[in-house]
Design goal:
The protein is an alpha/beta fold. It has a single domain, classed as Rossmann fold (3-Layer(aba) Sandwich), CATH 3.40.50.300.
Length: about 260
């Protein structure tokens, strides 16, 4: 198990900031396409001819109208879906041909914040956040400190015993974020994380992602909220339209061109 470092969850920078260093590619897509279904039931390509790289320690916004393919692209990133064609390299290896026994290890290096939270209903806030560490086999004696740090980081210390049904949408989203990052993933993927919260909470969530990125984690946030796109200095934007990447990864310009313009 990789060594984890805690104690930086209140916005302090670690020794190195991800956006202050030129780092290697952590993700590389080469002519990737995705089509759901097979044979006569196969539909049109959901994603087509995607070629791009993501650099370690960088912050990315993935934008596009509803139905553009953002969620499908994220599924490829966190290994929930294999492409129909093309090559995907994660952490320097060909992810398309990974064997079943190696997939869990790769997935543990990627944190995911789902659009619908996917919290376990019968578990408390504490236990939902602790779940990845327990699944990874961490001893219970070693779990308490990181969970307490996560609760403080997302401002939910007083809600540690609450079940998901008693939490607001913003609180559930923060639990989902804490669960996604407690194991210090190298990549964090968030699918429309501000879609169910008010503007003030959206800003707060974005600050959490930014503080994590400053610790060196590569962050990819899928959103159609154009008001967020200028909030992270140095962030880069990728834009999808009907499954194709229209804007190559580059310096973010604000305001961006809307996908339907």
């Amino acid at each position: 198990m990789r060594k984890r470092r805690y104690g930086h969850w209140h916005g302090q920078q670690a020794g190195e900031s991800g956006r202050n260093h030129v780092m290697a590619n952590i993700v590389q897509f080469e002519n990737v396409g995705l089509r759901y279904g097979t044979g006569p039931d196969a539909g049109p390509e959901t994603l087509a001819d995607l070629s791009f790289t993501l650099r370690s320690g960088a912050f990315y916004f993935l934008t596009g109208a509803s139905g553009a393919g953002k969620t499908s692209l994220l599924k490829l990133l966190y290994l929930a879906q294999r492409p129909t064609r093309g090559v995907i390299r994660l952490f320097g290896e060909d992810a398309v041909v990974l064997s079943r026994d190696r997939l869990p290890g790769f997935r543990r290096r990627i944190g995911v914040v789902f659009q619908d939270f996917r919290l376990v209903p019968h578990l408390s806030t504490w236990d939902n956040i602790a779940l990845p560490l327990r699944v990874a086999g961490m001893p219970e004696a070693d779990i308490e400190q990181p969970v307490r740090e996560m609760l403080a980081w997302v401002g939910l210390t007083e809600r540690a015993d609450a079940r998901p049904a008693t939490l607001s949408g913003g609180e559930q989203q923060r639990v989902a974020i804490a669960r996604a990052v407690i194991a210090r993933p190298e990549i964090l993927v968030a699918d429309e994380p501000t879609g169910n919260v008010d503007p003030d909470m959206a800003e707060r969530l974005l600050h959490l992602f930014e503080s994590l990125n400053k610790l060196g984690t590569t962050v990819v946030v899928a959103t159609h909220d154009f008001h967020l796109l200028g909030r992270i200095p140095g962030a880069q934007m990728m834009r999808l339209d009907r499954g194709r990447l229209l804007d190559p990864t580059g310096s973010l310009r604000y305001p961006p061109t809307r996908p339907d313009s």
